[in-house]
Amino acid sequence: MAGTIDIETIRKLSVKQRLALVARIMATLAEEGTEPAFSPEVDAELERRAARARANPEEGLSLTEFDQRLQARRRERA
Hints:
Elements: H1 7-11, H2 15-31, H3 40-55, H4 63-77
């Protein structure tokens, strides 16, 4: 390992900063072609949900609709 990871330093980051760090780490895995594997149960659930979405597209939300609902929930909690 090139350097030492200090978990206490990571804990001092804001939630937004930590999520950005996780995203950057995941991106490096994808760039290297090494993506984490899901358990068979998670794979099966993802497949089930994808099949349902394909079979019932009218039940889904557009990205804009999803974002609007998410933002509304965040405002309610604030």
